[in-house]
Amino acid sequence: MSERKGNTSMATPEFQVCCAAGQAMLRPLEPLPDQIATLLKNNDARSKEFKENIRSYNSALSFASMNADLDRRYANNQHGAYAFRIHGGVYHLMSSSLIPDESNVVQQPRFAQIYIFDSRNELQNRTNVAGNQDVSRETMRILQNMMH
Predict the structure, then answer these.
(1) How many whole angstroms separate alpha carbon 56 and alpha carbon 140?
(2) What residues contact 119, with CB distance under 8 A and at least 6 apart?
(3) What is the pTM (predicted TM-score) of this model?
């Protein structure tokens, strides 16, 4: 309520910055897929493991990764709140090609490559990208099937 326009009442507030005084109307959010809703809402062992490793699952299932030129002068400040300050623009970090470089045997498929290249080993490739030994192969399979 503290962000409402100063001349509006608490009973009928108007907000200028966030929604252009009612001109911007957002659609209701789509419901979560059942698989994700179950993992987030439940408190069983699989759900706890998913919540603990959610960033690893997100990385393994993403098509691209966000990257930015960070202004590191404030990033590791010892005093006050951590600041994530971007210098320049934000961009997507993707593999340079949809097919991994065959001359580089070490390089494994990642991001969108996993969906296209070597689909027989897709689950293993995702698990490798997650890089976390605690990630459940079965949970990864459920999420991968949901994405398909």
Answers:
(1) 10
(2) none
(3) 0.61
Residue in 65, 63, 53 with CA at minimum distance from that of residue 139: 53
CB burial class (10 A; 0-12, 13-18, 19+) of residue 129? buried
C-alpha span between 60 and 21 (Å, rounded): 40
Which residues are CB-neighbours of 113 under 8 A, at least 6 positions away? 95, 97, 98, 99, 100
Task: Please tell me the distance from the alpha carbon of residue 15 to that of residue 22, in angstroms, as a whole number.
Answer: 7
CA distance 50 to 71: 32
Could you give the CA distance from residue 59 to residue 93 in angstroms, rounded to a whole number? 12
pLDDT tens string 58-108: 888 887 767 777 666 665 556 666 666 676 777 666 555 555 566 655 567
Over the stretch 69-78, which tens digit does the pLDDT of each residue have? 766 666 555 6
